[in-house]
Design a protein that fits this description.
By secondary structure, the protein is mainly alpha-helical. It has 19 helices and two strands. It has one domain.
């Protein structure tokens, strides 16, 4: 769905910012020069009609990512009603996070329009946690990850050498690869290769991916911006046509009311020390992504921009960590600033922080429409798989662009090459990792965990 280069469900794929997120030296600047191509700058207040439409455009990109909430709820064994309520609560959390980021409240918030989405970075860890410990474990560990990201924000200005572009970019590459492989499993129907309807399901997934890619490459204007959402809608229509959506699922959508406040009574919280490392690693990756998003927002809003403002970035990443913590409190598996949404601002020339109010208003409205959550729950696995492949491919290339924003020295070559091979070994040789002692699972349970550990260690060796 985003797909953004560094994101999470399929959405549009605007040009990816290749900034490392943390520059070699921070600036000290008090004045910004307004870029000539901005229609509505940071402090401008668009007319009400334009404000409503600009907010709706952002929400159209945010909504496909909410599939992650539905998938995690399903993996935990929750009922359709609980999953629908979780989606509604996720919308409320994103609305609050959007406003928090757009306004500076002391040391919190960058002051830029940088709306978040439900991040793919947390998906693998949250999925495993949901399967083994239910939604309560997901809630507790995602809230823990938010605390880790907030702590990372405070130390960010002192960590520039530990997380250079080659490290932050490779982490994005690892997220893209893992997300894409999860998507391919659903796309190809690997879990049920003897299903007589498998060819039709693969064909439906292929058509869905083709629409997303086609609009992303050849589309113009709004169709290109909303290529992920349009592709999902098309895939859902094809799925209904070939019988992938059962009458039971259609009945569930029909049975959900048009208006109902999300019910939080299903929420519970568990904390398991054995899950600390994978969620801390995801928090680190999320913080690095937020760093890149805020850097991009600085560039879009300042024609004379030369260096990232690290103090402002720290405030933005701190807001991102608080948003992740609050998301964990309402069963939303990881909220993080979205590069695709900042990319939309560059394309449209509208960066006004007042748009945050319109985004929040739309999300609060949809949070009270349970049919939205029910429709996301009814998406067939092959269609969701196509969306994850689309998203993962964009993130993979986005990470490559970040890595290549600096010369590929012999040092960087070995950091990327060795880390990538060790990360891929998790999928290629699962029998080896099954023999490792249980205490090592925190570091080896996913490709992302292995990628971050090996990449950071190699960078420290070469410092």
């Amino acid at each position: 769905m985003s797909t953004p280069p560094v994101s999470t469900l399929p959405v549009s794929t605007p040009p990816v910012d290749s900034s490392p997120g943390v520059a070699d030296r921070p600036p000290r600047r008090d004045r910004h020069e307004r870029p000539p191509d901005l229609i509505y700058g940071l402090d401008d207040r668009p007319p009400l009609a334009h404000l409503i439409l600009l907010g709706a455009q952002h929400v159209a990109v945010i909504c496909p990512y909410l599939v992650f909430v539905a998938l995690i709820a399903q993996a935990s064994g929750a009922s359709a009603a609980v999953a629908s309520h979780a989606v509604g609560l996720g919308m409320i959390a994103i609305a609050f996070a959007t406003l928090l980021q757009a306004h500076r409240l002391g040391p919190v918030g960058s002051g830029y329009l940088a709306p978040p989405v439900v991040s793919a970075i947390y998906f693998a860890s949250a999925l495993h946690a949901a399967q083994r410990g239910g939604l309560g474990l997901v809630c507790g560990m995602v809230a823990f990850a938010g605390v880790v990201e907030a702590l990372f924000a405070w130390g960010l200005p002192r960590m520039r050498r530990v997380f250079p572009p080659v490290v932050s970019g490779f982490i994005v590459i690892a997220v893209g690869v893992e997300l894409g492989l999860i998507g391919l499993r659903g796309f190809l129907g690997v879990s049920d290769l003897h299903d007589p309807h498998l060819p039709a399901h693969i064909a439906a997934a292929g058509l869905t991916l083709a629409v997303m890619v086609g609009l992303g490459v050849w589309g113009k204007g709004l169709p290109r911006l909303l290529c992920g959402l349009i592709g999902l809608a098309f895939g859902m229509a094809v799925a209904v046509g070939v019988g992938m959506v059962t009458s039971k699922e259609a009945a569930i959508i029909g049975s959900r009311p048009w208006f109902e406040l999300p019910d939080p009574r299903f929420l519970s919280y568990r904390f398991a020390p054995s899950w600390m490392v994978p969620f801390a690693i995801a928090a680190l990756a999320s913080g690095l992504r937020a760093t890149g998003v805020i850097t991009t927002a600085q560039k879009i809003n300042d024609a004379s921009w030369r260096w990232p403002d690290l103090n402002n970035i720290r405030s933005g990443v701190l807001a991102d960590g608080i948003a992740c913590f609050l998301g964990g409190c309402v069963a939303t598996p990881g909220i993080s600033a979205a590069p695709s949404l900042v990319g939309i601002q560059k394309v449209t020339g509208a960066t006004s922080r007042y748009i945050a109010y319109a985004i929040a208003g739309w999300l609060l409205l949809f949070a009270c429409v349970p049919k939205v959550g029910a429709a996301l729950l009814a998406l067939p696995i092959p269609i969701v798989g196509a969306a994850l492949v689309f998203n993962g491919a964009s993130m993979l290339v986005g990470g490559i662009q970040i890595v290549m924003s600096r010369p590929m020295t012999m040092r960087n070559t070995f950091i990327v090459g060795i880390s990538l091979l060790f990360a891929l070994s998790r999928r290629v040789y699962p029998e080896f990792f099954a023999l490792l002692p249980s205490w090592s699972n925190a570091f080896t349970d996913s490709m992302l965990s292995i990628a971050v550990v090996v990449c950071v260690l190699l960078n420290l060796v070469f410092l």
